[in-house]
Specification:
- The protein is mainly alpha-helical.
- It has one domain: Orthogonal Bundle (MetI-like fold), CATH 1.10.3720.10.
- Helices cover 71% and strands 0% of the residues.
- It has 13 helices and no strands.
- Helix 7 runs antiparallel to helix 10 and helix 11 packs antiparallel against helix 12.
- The radius of gyration is 22 Å and the shape is elongated.
- The protein starts with 13 loop residues before the first helix and ends with a helix.
- 40% of the residues are buried.
- Belongs to the binding-protein-dependent transport system permease family.
- This is ABC transporter permease.
- InterPro entries: BP-dependent_transpt_permease (IPR050366), MetI-like (IPR000515), MetI-like_sf (IPR035906), OppC_N (IPR025966).
- Pfam families: BPD_transp_1, OppC_N.
- It is found in: Cell membrane.
């Protein structure tokens, strides 16, 4: 009897995701919050009532009012408008940094786990060194070397997340490479690249996606931290971390400057974590069966 070379793990269906959302009511809150934030970022020119770069010294440090919902900063710029445009930077950095880290990290992890031996030991040693650095410290070092810009910020944060993705991809690869469908593909003469990309990776993609949603929240926190210390997107571009830094010295008499961008970061991270919990339930067969 011949053995099929088709993977024997069923893909995650939309019904499984819906079931996970029904069981985890808070996931709807996370999805709703994330959709609102994404909508505000995409349609920022329509949502923001003012130009985020427009200065009006006469209106500087005005508290929240009917005209300026979240007050104004030390240059008279509307805080709400800058908050909306700042969502663009946070989401762009978080999404593309995690996407790059996911592709590179997963490829390294699968390759290391599949080849094994000395190559695996060397790769894991390098990854252990990267993981020994705190994420923020590693991102700070890379960002300081590359300089402050949007592209460099994405690269810096992506580098900090490559090692965790590689670790996540390596473990299932070691167990999957000895499964029947991989052995059958190897017997049929399939190349290593085909086995790793079309037979091993699809069986771990659910876990990778779940971790992507969770680590995107970490990437947004890192972006805000680097912007706070001046290694993010340079001013006058609105970023949440930069807004917190600008309002740090005026906290006692202009509380709205650091508070509102801090709340924006809190809600975004909360939304991604709640959504990640639901996706985890959808891809984990043990949790789905409970």
């Amino acid at each position: 009897m011949s053995v099929s070379a088709t993977p024997d793990v069923a893909p995650v269906r939309s019904s499984g995701i819906l079931l996970a959302f029904r069981k985890n009511k808070l996931s709807w809150l996370g999805l709703g919050l994330l959709l609102i934030i994404v909508f505000a970022a995409v349609f920022a020119p329509l949502v923001a009532p003012f130009d985020p770069l427009q200065q009006n010294i006469i209106m500087r440090l005005k508290p929240p009012s009917a005209e300026h919902w979240m007050g104004t900063d030390s240059y008279g710029r509307d805080v709400f408008s800058r908050l909306v445009y700042g969502a663009r930077i946070s989401l762009i950095v978080g999404f593309f940094a995690i996407l790059i880290a996911m592709v590179i990290g997963s490829a390294i992890g699968i390759l290391s786990g599949y080849i094994g031996g000395l190559f695996d030991q060397i790769v894991m040693g390098v990854l252990d060194v990267m993981l020994s650095f705190p994420t923020l410290l590693l991102g700070l070092m890379v960002a300081a070397m590359l300089g402050a810009s949007l592209e460099n910020l994405i690269i810096a944060i992506a580098i900090t997340e490559i090692a965790p993705f590689a670790r996540i991809a390596r473990a299932p690869t070691i167990s999957l490479k000895s499964r029947d469908f991989v052995e059958a593909g190897r017997a049929l003469g399939f190349s290593r690249l085909r086995l790793m990309s079309l037979h091993i990776f699809p069986n771990m993609v659910g876990t990778v996606i779940v971790m992507s949603s969770l680590w995107m929240a970490a990437a947004i926190r890192t972006e805000a931290s680097l912007s706070f210390i001046g290694l993010g997107v340079p001013p006058p571009v609105a970023t949440w971390g930069g807004m917190i830094r600008d309002g740090f010295e005026t906290l006692l008499y202009a509380w709205w400057l650091p508070v509102f961008p801090s709340l924006a970061i809190l809600l975004t991270v909360l939304a991604l974590n709640l959504l990640g919990d639901a996706l985890r339930d959808a891809v984990d067969p043990k949790l789905r069966s409970e």
